[in-house]
Amino acid sequence: MSYWPLLGVGVVVGGFALRLNPMLVVVSAGLTSGLAAGLRLPDLLALLGDSFLSSRAPLLVILTLPIVGLLEEAGLREHGRAWIASLRGMTLGRLLCTYLGLRQLVSMFGLTTLAGHAQTVRPLLAPMSEAAADKTLGSLDAAQRERVRALAAATDNVGLFFGEDVFIAFGAVLLIQGFYARNGIVLDPMAIALWALPTALAAYAVHAWRIRHVERHLRRELAARPEDGGD
Amino acid sequence: MIEAVYLLAALLLGAAAWRNLRARRWARAAFWGLLTVAFAAGDAIQAAAKAGERLPHQAVGAGVIALALLAAFGMRALPATQTADPGRAASAARLGHRLFMPALLIPALTAALVLLAKIPGATALLGVAREQVTLVALATACLLALIAALRVTGARPAAALAANARLLDTLGWAVVLPALLAALGNVFAATHVGDAIAALTQTAIPVESRLASLVAYALGMLVFTIIMGNAFAAFPVLAAGIALPLLIGRHGADPAALGALGMLSGYCGTLLTPMAANFNIVPAALLELRDPYGVIRAQWPTALGVFLANFLLMWLFALR
Asked: How many beta-carbon pairs under 8 angstroms link A with B?
């Protein structure tokens, strides 16, 4: 076995550690691994081109952009903010914990496209989170605002990841079942999917605690800030 | 059907290229222009490659390298779009909850169409391949939601293209990174990087110890997913290298629990890595965070907490 192609992994780790542009890191890593494995440049270019064309699907998220853009220009985010601010008893923690639970539940039934960073987080969840934080914690500064938005995106990821694999027709479950079947172990997809349930509950508990923790942290920061320093 | 979806995407990318060309931002115009060609001609290129023509694929490969160079050296950041605007606030107050409707239509219609496609014969009737159902459903939902958005806001269709170009420029290269990472995954697979890592891992584990084997499996899933950006790529390597021969074969672990919980260890890695670009890097660009790793920073404590809980579950239930 040749260990030289591992140089590509080194390029990935080193490139990200040095904070080089990710596009550059990824392409350099591919070229490094390919050349280290003894591929000729024309073959390597064809492999790169073929792989890129067969992986275009994730880019189709851009089809949502005209709608999101139009609605934003018409004030979607402003309205989301105003609406959340008018709800009594709505806090950052309650908003994000509710979203987390719903996202997990809906993903468990396979409806993973019902939400996402382009469809729901940027136009709805992020501005609503900022509004809820502004209302109950005091007016945030730019860095705190970014932390709240990042937490909203993280909440969507956690909800999706630790919900979808409880769904029996999900790719991960079928991948596990197929792998075992090829190796002579026959399993029911349901038997695999159910094992994802305890971790799903743990993920809810851990992330809900983290949301509350960030909320408490922001409250302390804002309480320590002198009144006249507000913006 | 899927060809039409890619043509639609090419139209949106072309609009962004045109906007940047007019603003004399050459690097950005070239970036979106290259992608427009890849989307508009993609299927023709794949067909030519099937017929044995290699030059088009090589040209795309060279284009991919050009995209990376443009992204790294040609594209300067644009000013943020999240600024206050009294016109928008007035429009928000006037339109109210009606603004939510088109935004919610996208996911609701996509989900409804995917469910409809489960009716026997429905996909064959429309000529949609089964694995493309989600993408065609998403595109159809977006078209219908766009009509709804134009009606609610009273904007002209040209305004939709302009809004799209503005958002594409906000996202920048982040929107292309997932496809590039998938391509890297293919190169790694073709050069047997996974096999080399598995061979290295196996030489390092004391196979007699149940706990050491389980730690190697869980940590292996985590680290390998961080490197590859995808737990799906990590699972076959670690399952064949550690789970089957050691944990199941030698120590009698439960395969169902071991498989499911091992995959979830990998998911914790997905939360930690910039290689999972569409979950970690794209949203940082979408939310206009100054720190491209801001989302990872927000989720690493959760990832570690869930990883530990998940490991405990594996120890308790998979290795009875």
From this structure: 437
Q: How many Cβ atoms sit within 10 Å of the Cβ of residue A171?
A: 11
Nearest to residue B76, comparing CAs of B172, B5, B162, B147?
B172
With beta carbons under 8 A apart, name residues in chain A contacting B178: 55, 58-59
Chain A residues with beta carbon closer than 8 angstroms to that of B179: 52, 55-56, 58-59
Give the chain B residue nearest A69 (alpha carbons): B163
pLDDT digits 0-9 by tens, A161-211: 999 888 766 678 888 888 898 888 988 888 888 899 999 999 999 999 999
Residue B243 is which amino acid?
A: A
**Nearest Cα to Cα of residue A78 among B199, B97, B261, B15:** B97
The tokens for A98 are 């509710």
Q: How far is B151 from B225, CA to CA, in rounded Å?
A: 44
- Of B168, B112, B160, the C-alpha closest to B140 is B112
**Partner-chain residue, chosen from A56, A173, A206, that has the shortest CB–CB distance to B305:** A206
Decide: A80 and A124 in contact? Cβ < 8 Å. Answer: yes
Residue A227: band (very low, low, confident or very high) from pLDDT cuts 50, 70, 90 = low
Q: Please give the radius of gyration of chain A, using alpha carbons only, rounded to the nearest integer.
A: 22
Rounded to a whole number of angstroms, the distance from the CA of A97 to the nearest CA of chain B is: 14
Specify the long-range contacts of residues B114-121, CB closer than 8 Å, at least 24 apart: B114/A113
Beta-carbon separation of B106 and A82 below 8 A: no
Q: How far is B118 from chain A (nearest CA, A)?
A: 13
Q: Chain A: residue nearest B115 by CA? A: A111
pLDDT tens digit string along B281-304? 999 999 999 999 999 999 999 999
